[in-house]
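Sync notes, pocket subgroup
Present: LS, DG
LS reminded everyone that the earlier model was apo-only. Rerun requested with adenosine monophosphate included. Inputs:
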Amino acid sequence: MAVETVVPEASANAAVKLGPPTNEKDAEKLMFIEEMTANTDAVQEKVLAEILTRNAETEYLRRYGLDGATDRATFKGKVPVVTYEDLQPEIQRIANGDRSAILSAHPISEFLTSSGTSAGERKLMPTIKEELDRRQLLYSLLMPVMNLYVPGLDKGKGLYFLFVKSETKTPGGLTARPVLTSYYKSEHFKSRPYDPYNVYTSPTAAILCADAFQSMYAQMLCGLLQRLDVLRVGAVFASGLLRAIRFLQLHWQDLSNDIAAGSLTAKVTDPSVRAAVAELLREPDPALARFVAAECSKGDWAGIITRIWPSTKYLDVIVTGAMAQYIPTLEYYSGGLPMACTMYASSECYFGLNLRPICEPSEVSYTIMPNMGYFEFLPHGDGHGQDKAQQLVDLADVEAGKEYELVITTYAGLNRYRVGDILRVTGFYNAAPQFRFVRRKNVLLSIESDKTDEAELQRAVESASALLRPYDATVVEYTSHAYTKSIPGHYVIYWELLAKGASGDADALEALSHVGVMEKCCLAMEEALNSVYRQSRMADGSIGPLEIRVVRGGTFEELMDYAISRGASINQYKVPRCVTFPPILELLDSRVVSTHFSPAPPTWSPHRRPGN
Ligand code: AMP
């Protein structure tokens, strides 16, 4: 491990409470967690000093006159709290090829493309080589914790659906790709030593195949071939696992034919994937083929996960935050298996892990590991008008029950950077606070990793409604809903229209339905949404076509009446731009006069749009 593990001397007597460990290696990892959490504040102090020492000569820290100081008080007094937009000039210079020490003394090795966007494009997060070690360190803590709750995980395998996505180069030649793509393509992952607790059914070649269909097909086939070995089934996010089940629903016949024939479909062309699958698909297995076909042709998909993979003990997927919407569907497909949310991480920095991974999704708390970066917390909701930098609280000083926005300082050169996540302190493990993920700020709609905010939705509605002008119609009100009852989910936008022409609303609106303009509006909205949305639609197919549901005149007034009847103030009432409350959805759906879907995916290219 190349990264120094910061253990202050005073910590040597940390006692292991997480336990008893299953084996010696686990004991070492659990001890590490004990030490880090017992000494949260001292570790944080050391991490900050280490970051400030190494980055003392960077343009950024010099600008704020840190003069080599490495203490918290000077840092907090001089360095501002920033957002991505504040750092954009520096990021742009690095992207354009400036290799001087702008943010980090260590060379920026690549950019990680966040699913968070700025001006419609993925944010570019600078990273340095050694961050891979830090990520790997956090990953290495997950199984030792899980082993405390689920015994025998070394007796079988994990069926994990893991994928790489496309990557691109910045004008200056740095690679830009998602953090998981970077990790899976690294030697840390590709050349990982054998670990009986971390054996996957998916061959590495299948995970690394950039073609989403071939990758998924091979991973599913290998999962079926080794079905009796599978002890846990997972994906990074719940939406990914549901896509895998959808894939099985669509392709089980081909998969079962391959198993019956003992040979892989010609649709998988990648030679390394074919070679890897051939290792497992050596001869026909008619009994397994019949089994797969029988289970999948029943038309009943309840409990399909445990029917096909009967030894599965838990699902390993994140179902916190925006993913909570998928919990009922996952329960349906898994017959109520526990869902383990093991870690909390981002492109900017990996934060921490869940020390009680087998708990109810609503109870999940993450313990931020103080060695991963320097963490500060901006009290959420109060202190308007005060200087932000004055209000920040250190990791060890947050208060149980309070909500905060996470602010990070990383080894890679982000200083006091607002991540945009709102967290609530639920308690402490040793001296380390534990956090419930409350929500990401400013996210209105999300199906998978896409995050659409209110302003983006507004712009998309404006851009689409321009198409109604020739028909003398306007959108008088709108709201939205992330529809996830079918997989993939899709955005539903409710529009109330007003026709200005003489012929009367109903006739004019009826006419609109027939000229195909509403479908064009759906596509125009999609074209106006951010690049993560468009990539999910166009390249990944992980979001379905956007739907506009036209509601009859007066519906939004009824919505207001309903809100007022439930106690909303008439003066303060604002149309909700996203609705999830079932009675409101029912009201809207009962007033729908026509529905329209986007006829084609929007444009997207891995390369940024000109000007960004
Ligand atoms: P990205 O930068 O695309 O890697 O996305 C990182 C963001 O995903 C985080 O800042 C969170 O908003 C969200 N996220 C990551 N892990 C979790 C988790 N365990 N639960 C809820 N949200 C998460």
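DG: Residues 112 and 125 are 5 Å apart (CA to CA).
LS: Residues 114-116, 179, 318, 320-321, 341, 344-347, 419, 421, 437, 440, 449 surround adenosine monophosphate (CB under 6 Å).
Action: DG to write up.
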